[in-house]
Amino acid sequence: MTDIPLVRVNVLHGVTAFLQQLDVPIDRVLMEAKLSPVILHEPDTLIPLKQALHLIETAAAHAGIAHFGLVAGQQTQIAKMGALGRLLCHSLTLYDALQTLIHLVHSYNSGDRIWLEYQEDTVWLCRRFIYKLEAEHPQAVHYSLIILIHLVQLATGIQWQPTQIHLPTYPVSNTHQIELLANADIQFNQDKTAIAIPSNLLSLPLRSNFDYNQHQRERDYSSLHSSDLKIIFLESLKQIIKSQLKQGYLSIDSTAEILGISVRTLQRQLSGENLTYSYLIDQVRLECSLTLLSDPLNKVADIAVEIGYRDASNFTRAFKRWTGISPKAYSLNHLHIRT
What is the sign, positive or negative, of the torsion defined by CA atoms of 10, 236, 64, 24? Predict the structure, then answer.
């Protein structure tokens, strides 16, 4: 179940920071992208890439800014990109940082591909989403472009600006109003994102301004390499279902759309884990109801609504099927155990 691209939530911190500056309600944008606001407190969580890309496009629509991705990208700090960000910031040289990114990006964003192309005295830093997602998500492409430029600037300093850029998106007006791009010859409608870097910059040491010891380095490498994408995908899928229980987006068609895959692909992936979609929904509903029932102040009728049942009696029947007892009996038993 590893062929559905996943990305870590902290890649979006530049987007949320910019929305805050604009006083755009972040929770509303998240819900429209079918993401729970809870993810903002879990920055290392992996979510479906298609969902993250949709969030950036939704945020751009709310902000009403044509070059939203370029501006939001400027809010992004490499150091805030979790384990990968810390490893990049503490690379020895720019070349070392680029190689680290190339080798570890799949553990951070399994839908991204990054590589270098050499051309005389220039090195092109290239990236492309798998499944050709660029066409539908130009703001995300522009957002990631600025992040890559920021990575180069860890070695060169903020005064450096690229002079040649290729983008796989349609032309965007006013790009030269963005200071980072003021001197760039930007070629649109290309087959990938690419930034020209003079080869003599690759040996520049990075400028790190925070402590980072060997223990932290090893822990960050371990956290990226040890990710079990099968488990992570299932947890991400459960999170999607959980966030939509009350809103009613429970059909397998809606969930497949969020993931950016066909219903048949989702069914095949679940079948490979000996699961069905209906069983997964029951599992999420049970987990949520057990948590809510642990608080004696929560009423059964309210819990039923919270997990997507219009009728409390339907919830009671389902809960008995899952546990063998009624929600009320479970709540009383839990209270008795605690006291």
Answer: negative
